[in-house]
Design a protein that fits this description.
Ubiquitin conjugating enzyme E2 F (putative); UBC; 3 helices; alpha+beta; 3-stranded antiparallel sheet
Length: about 100
């Protein structure tokens, strides 16, 4: 995660000094989804309950992560539930109809 955040900072510093090499420009581009996820992952980690843990197998791919939930009370106490999540490219750009219309 720090790797992508530092990449975003570096990209912001390079905006004024663009080179004509399109191949190197394409490797430095960061999607809108990833820019949003940098902020939202930081908020997620700050507010995540102690019974939940988030893991990023590849720190450069914030859109792919694993969530592990280990309830400490109730019927599922002692259980361990793992979820793999992949955020689509169209994240936060696709309008979803309100549920009341269905």
């Amino acid at each position: 995660m720090l790797t992508l955040a530092s990449k975003l900072k570096r990209d912001d510093g390079l905006k004024g000094s663009r080179t004509s090499a399109t191949a190197s420009d394409s490797t430095r581009r960061v999607s809108v989804r990833d820019r949003l996820l940098v902020k939202e992952v930081a908020e997620l980690e700050a507010n995540l309950p102690c019974t939940c843990k988030v893991h990023f197998p590849d720190p450069n791919k914030l859109h792919c992560f694993q969530l592990t939930v280990t309830p400490d009370e109730g019927y599922y106490q002692g259980g361990k539930f793992q979820f793999e999540t992949e955020v689509p490219d169209a994240y936060n750009m696709v309008f979803l109809a309100p549920l009341e219309n269905f």
